[in-house]
Each structure stands twice: as C-alpha cells, then as structure tokens.
Specification:
- With 317 residues, the protein is an alpha+beta fold.
- The strands form two sheets. Strands 3, 4, 5, 6, 7, 8, 9, 10, 11 and 12 form a ten-stranded antiparallel sheet that branches. A two-stranded antiparallel ribbon has the order 1-2.
- A hairpin with a 4-residue loop joins strand 5 and strand 6.
- The longest helix is centred in the first third of the chain and has 15 residues.
- It is globular, with a radius of gyration of 19 Å.
- The two termini are 25 Å apart.
Length: 317
C-alpha cells in the first residue's frame, strides 16, 4: 500500500459534456462513517441515506473494490478437475506460473476488511449451476480463446492491452484500482481509477442513441428505485469481454459477446460504507438465456484515500 494514497483529499473539479451543455461540478469524498473499516452492521432495518438537492440518495465518495468481487471468489463454478486441467494447459502455452511481483504493494488488506460475502462464493448466481449459459458454438469459442490466450493479441483481455474492460467487466476492479462516485444534478458519474475510464449516467429518461453508436463501455441510462441505482446499458462494441478474472488468465476469461449485448445493473446502497451489485446480462447471439452475477462490489475507502494517475503503457516494452 503506497503512502502516496493517503493525505489531504482535495476536491476534484470535473467538467463533463452532457448533451449540448457543459456542467461543472465538484466531487469531494463523502465523510466515511465510524464503521468504514468494519463489517456491515447486523441490523435488518433498511438503511436510509441522506438525499441530495435533486432527490438522489447520496452515494458520493471513493470506494475500493470488494475482495469477493475481484479475486477472492470464482466467477463461475468449476470442478477441481477442470481447474487442474486449465492450469496444465496454461503451463503448456506459457510455461510455469512465475508471479511477476508479490502482493505487499497491493490493497488486498484494505479490501479484505469489510467484505460481506463468504470467500469462495460463486459470482454467477443464475443459472443455478453457476455457469455462463453459452450457446454450444460460443462455449467452444470461449474455451479456445481462454486456453490459447497468447495465440494472437485479440485473444488477450482488453484490460491487459490497456483498453477499456467494458461493462460489467470493469466493475470487477483490480488489486490496485479504486472508484469514485460523483452526483451532479440529474446524473451519476463513476470514475474508474483503472485506465482513466468514466461513465456518465443521466437520470432523465432520455433514450439510448441509435444502433450505429457503439461504445467500449456501452451507453448507460439510469434511474433510482429506492436505494438502488438501476442502469440500463446498450450500444456496445464487440471488442470487450463480459467478465473475466484479474490478470487476463482464468477459467472465465475469453467471455466474448456481440454488439447485441444488453446489461441491466443494480447498485444497491447497503449502508454508509457498502454497495452491492447485480448485473443481468443478455445477448441472444451468444447466450442461450439471460444470466446474472451478484457481489458486494464496493466498500468505502478510508478517510484521506486518494486516487492516483493510472499509466498502463508507461515503461512497457
């Protein structure tokens, strides 16, 4: 954990083009509660967040990805035999797994505190078997990409190539990446520390653009249902993965999709410091049915935590 992460937390001034006008706003980190580094409270009473002037529940602040929404739990359910076969295949195509670095510089310890899901929980909750419901041809293609990731650059995770990870892929975060939520009137803005990605989510009911507009993170339209931000996402490219383990290797990597991908996300404010996440994914060109992932996506960062400039290409050879 770098000491540069902590210190004075200046407000961040952001100007975002919204439609035909420029909206300037300030997004400082909301004050964390005393439970910021503890587990979620056991009370069953629903949490009532304070409201902003435009009526939105206040979810502003800087968050760390949950350990279970990242590398602490499998995305899909695989048998020990399947995992062992995959590891043998990876050694065949790239040699022994020799980690490039230790974990002492990552934020795993911070993420581990306050995670409310049991380690090992499978993130795909529907279908009940915990598997992404690929069409047979698509499963064969996914498995070939997964098992031969170094055959061509297009087989590598877009995040590994310093490109946007897509939605919902980018919400799985990374060992060193944080998120910041800003709420200018009528909008929710999510800033991803990873690769300077941002999402501007209007709440005014405007329609999605026409099908000729294709975006790496998709086009987002949101609404609040109580404590839950519901985000409808369309207009995708086919250049990202739906999901995938951190680091570009793993049994769920290679989860390609078509431009027909449609994602409905639900960010639920659980308490002052935790946000749960659900995404329902459908793509009739690739999957046999819609499917769902759930995990505790964010926990509030400690007071004074700062997001740093991300330089994915710096020093690469």
């Amino acid at each position: 954990m770098s000491a540069a992460r902590f210190g004075a937390a200046p407000a961040i001034a952001v100007a975002v083009m919204l439609g035909t006008s420029t909206v300037a706003f300030t997004g400082g980190q909301a004050e964390p509660s005393k439970a910021a580094t503890a587990t979620a409270p056991s009370s069953t009473a629903p949490y009532v967040p304070k409201r902003l002037l435009d009526g939105q529940p206040d979810v502003r602040g800087i968050y760390l990805p949950s350990v279970t929404g990242n590398i602490g739990s499998p995305i899909e359910r695989f048998t020990p035999e399947e995992r062992a076969a995959y590891l043998r295949q990876m050694e065949k195509v790239r040699g022994p797994d020799v980690p490039a670095h230790g974990q002492e510089w990552t934020e795993g310890a911070l993420r581990a505190k306050g995670s409310r899901m049991k380690m090992g929980t499978v993130l795909v909750t529907d279908p009940p078997d915990g598997k992404i419901p690929y069409q047979p041809w698509a499963l064969a293609k996914r498995n070939y990409i997964r098992d031969n990731p170094y055959e061509r650059s297009a087989f590598l995770d877009s995040r590994i190539r310093c490109l946007p990870g897509g939605t919902p892929r980018e919400n799985l975060g990374g060992a060193t990446n944080a998120f910041q939520v800003l709420q200018p009137p009528g909008h929710v803005v999510i800033l991803y520390e990873n690769n300077h990605i941002s999402r501007v989510i209007p709440l005014d009911g405007r329609p999605h653009p026409g099908p000729n507009v294709q975006l790496w993170m998709g086009d987002s339209r949101g609404r609040w249902e109580g404590n839950t931000l519901v985000v409808d996402v369309t207009n995708f490219t086919d250049k990202t993965w739906v999901t995938g383990e951190q680091g570009g290797e793993g049994l769920s990597t290679g989860s390609f999709h078509s431009q027909a991908l449609h994602v409905v996300e639900r960010f639920t404010i659980v308490d002052a410091d935790h946000v749960d996440y659900e995404s329902v994914i459908e793509d009739p060109n690739v999957f046999t049915r819609p499917w769902t992932m759930k995990y505790d996506v964010w926990k509030r960062a400690p007071a004074g935590y700062e997001m740093l400039e991300y330089a994915c290409h710096e020093g690469n050879k």
